């Protein structure tokens, strides 16, 4: 008999190993489990010698048959204060299970397991709320079963075939059906991955570039006309000073004596909305003024150097440093600053000018607050950093011109032209990472299709010739956990109510795409690949594990073959539909395949309509976004995988190509 400490350690090791294996390799379809009158989880275990000498010997029969009653968890309303009935292994197990699974769509052997936990643990469905401590805990018993000595079993290795998810939709077609990208319904774990060993932290330049992309793809407004309207506060100009302050205080004061806010909810809501608008306008004006300040200071450095050059050109016998000192003292007199103060500020302003020389004016306007720290301490301010910023200049200007068409009007204050260079959609251009001028997206496909055209859309388009007025993505309404119908649609993932009204919405599975938030442009760009894959999609900012990148948008149709489509269905009995992005869609069309993908396509239902969402598995800034097209796409396809990963599953060797 082992000591108590060893027994506890063995118990914990077995529980953790089995639980992790069952959670990672299986997934319970709780909609099917809830249809069972008395759901039971059956676990069998056998003990054998794992050495190589005994690898070919027969595996003995199970020594433990463990049955766990899940009735109190799956059907909490039926749970009784007493302990549930214990089901024992033996000759009666088959009859008991057959009776419990009567009417089920699946036999007991195909039921997936949730998790096995230590003796004091509990099993909880992932989408259900935690059971209170006052509920009855399912009782479990172990019984040693008789070993089946006469039955031979084939030994298994360390690898196991993946189990089919019974809740997923079977989309297998005839062998002739190819190029169909599949989506899953397993939500990626959002647990933060702990890095192993030392991890390089982002450099100061990385933070600066990330701030530029965040500002460009954010809600920043740099229209000079709006800036003037927000700063002048024209409705209050004619009022006396005291009256102006009083009116301004009414906007900012949340309540109290002298406030326009009344006791009614309507007046309070109206005042809150007005305060939101006013605060947003002031914030936008402050941010625009900061951008204007930076470009003026960068231009001042150019005027200072030009003035010193003109003084030195007129008197070649005098050292240049003397003219530099004279110009500096003249500027100190105009600014009213000391020489030390101006020298310190001038050092930072010169950094602004160097960034402008490498990344253009757009890199200054959208740099954010991190540019001051970058130019003050000048960490990583070298030729390699400036060359990297110089290569990103076309991409920055394309995004700035297409997302903020009026930003160049700020340059008129320093005498620069305000003509917009790039027009249209930000993804109408394929960026060259070498710093070459952007290529129109259409030009990258003319060698295969001379009539190629692509329209960027934000919402899927239903093919009326294929579906008429029906939407094949519609799903029937679900009921709440209590069994009563809900007034609002319920989320299949979290079980919360969904609504476009921020006051009623409780589902925050993908808040940047669906719900109350206004979707912002995804920080991604289409770039030209150098390994024969034509175009690809790059993440400009990091996407955490489980965060949405965008929705797979296109034409919802059916019956297409030999073209890249996304095929799905709301359930096993529903009609299959296809999303085709050949002529209409969004940036998800340009996501390449990789056998070691950092993203996945996931089915998600919003307001009763199934959506396909591109979800991150942990995407770093500056890396290419890739997904696994699945075996169904590559099945019988005369195409070579170019992902370049060491674990590539679809690499065609030269011998295979020669044989074909």
From TrEMBL:
<dbReference type="InterPro" id="IPR046341">
    <property type="entry name" value="SET_dom_sf"/>
</dbReference>
<dbReference type="InterPro" id="IPR053105">
    <property type="entry name" value="Class_V-like_SAM-MTase"/>
</dbReference>
<feature type="domain" description="SET">
    <location>
        <begin position="522"/>
        <end position="630"/>
    </location>
</feature>
<feature type="region of interest" description="Disordered">
    <location>
        <begin position="77"/>
        <end position="201"/>
    </location>
</feature>
<dbReference type="Pfam" id="PF00856">
    <property type="entry name" value="SET"/>
</dbReference>
<dbReference type="InterPro" id="IPR001214">
    <property type="entry name" value="SET_dom"/>
</dbReference>
<protein>
    <submittedName>
        <fullName>Putative set domain-containing protein</fullName>
    </submittedName>
</protein>
<feature type="compositionally biased region" description="Polar residues">
    <location>
        <begin position="93"/>
        <end position="105"/>
    </location>
</feature>
């Amino acid at each position: 008999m082992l000591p108590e400490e060893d027994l506890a350690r063995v118990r914990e090791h077995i529980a953790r190993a089995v639980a992790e294996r069952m959670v990672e390799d299986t997934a319970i379809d709780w909609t099917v489990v809830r249809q069972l009158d008395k759901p039971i989880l059956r676990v069998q275990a056998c003990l054998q010698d794992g050495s190589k000498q005994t690898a070919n010997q027969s595996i003995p029969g199970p020594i433990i048959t463990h049955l766990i009653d899940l009735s109190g968890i799956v059907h909490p309303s039926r749970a009784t204060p007493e302990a549930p009935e214990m089901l024992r292994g033996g000759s009666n197990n088959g009859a008991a299970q057959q009776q419990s699974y009567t009417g089920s769509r699946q036999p007991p052997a195909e039921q997936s397991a949730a998790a096995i936990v230590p003796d004091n643990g509990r099993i909880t469905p992932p989408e259900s709320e935690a059971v209170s401590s006052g509920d009855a805990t399912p009782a479990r018993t172990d019984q040693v079963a008789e070993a089946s000595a006469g039955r031979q079993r084939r030994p298994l290795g360390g690898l196991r075939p993946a189990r089919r998810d019974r809740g997923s939709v079977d989309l297998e077609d005839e062998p002739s059906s190819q190029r169909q990208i599949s989506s899953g319904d397993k939500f990626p774990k959002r647990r933060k991955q702990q890095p192993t060993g030392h991890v390089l932290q982002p450099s100061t330049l990385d933070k600066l570039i990330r701030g530029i992309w965040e500002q460009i793809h954010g809600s920043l407004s740099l229209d000079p006309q709006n800036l003037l309207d927000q700063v002048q506060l024209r409705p209050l100009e004619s009022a006396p000073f005291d009256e102006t302050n009083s009116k301004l205080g009414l906007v900012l004061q949340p309540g109290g004596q002298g406030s326009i806010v009344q006791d009614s909810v309507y007046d309070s809501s109206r005042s809150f909305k007005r305060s939101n608008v006013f605060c947003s306008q002031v914030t936008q004006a402050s941010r625009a003024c900061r951008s204007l300040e930076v470009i003026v200071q960068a231009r001042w450095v150019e005027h200072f150097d030009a003035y010193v050059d003109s003084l030195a050109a007129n008197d070649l016998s005098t050292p240049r440093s003397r003219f530099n000192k004279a110009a500096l003292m003249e500027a100190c007199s105009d600014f009213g600053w000391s020489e030390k103060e101006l020298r310190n500020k001038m050092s930072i302003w010169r950094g602004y000018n160097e960034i402008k020389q490498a990344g253009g004016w757009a890199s200054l306007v959208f740099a954010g607050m991190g540019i001051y720290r970058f130019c003050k301490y000048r960490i990583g301010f070298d030729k390699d950093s400036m060359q990297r910023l110089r290569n990103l200049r076309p991409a920055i200007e394309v995004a700035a011109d297409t997302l903020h068409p009026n930003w160049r009007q700020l340059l008129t204050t320093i005498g620069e032209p305000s003509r917009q260079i790039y027009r249209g959609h930000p993804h109408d251009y394929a960026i060259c990472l070498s710093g070459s001028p952007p290529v129109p997206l259409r030009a990258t496909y003319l060698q295969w299709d001379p009539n190629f055209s692509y329209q960027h859309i934000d919402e899927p388009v239903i093919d009326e010739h294929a579906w008429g007025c029906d939407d094949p993505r519609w799903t029937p309404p679900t009921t709440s956990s209590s069994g009563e119908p809900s007034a609002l649609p319920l989320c299949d993932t979290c079980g919360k109510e969904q609504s476009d009204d921020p006051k009623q919405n409780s589902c925050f599975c993908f808040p940047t795409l669906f719900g109350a938030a206004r979707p912002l442009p995804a920080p991604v760009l289409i770039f030209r690949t150098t390994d024969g894959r034509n175009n690809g999609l790059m993440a400009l900012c990091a996407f955490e594990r489980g965060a949405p990148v965008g929705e797979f948008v296109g034409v919802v149709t059916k019956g297409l073959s030999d073209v890249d489509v996304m095929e799905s269905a709301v359930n096993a009995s529903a009609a299959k539909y296809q999303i085709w992005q050949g002529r209409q869609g969004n940036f998800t069309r340009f996501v390449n395949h990789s056998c070691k993908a950092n993203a996945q396509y996931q089915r998600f239902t919003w307001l009763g309509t199934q959506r396909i969402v591109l979800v991150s598995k942990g995407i770093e800034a500056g890396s290419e976004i890739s997904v696994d097209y699945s075996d169904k796409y590559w099945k019988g396809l005369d195409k070579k995988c170019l992902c370049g990963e060491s674990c590539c599953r679809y690499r065609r060797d030269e011998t295979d190509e020669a044989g074909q």
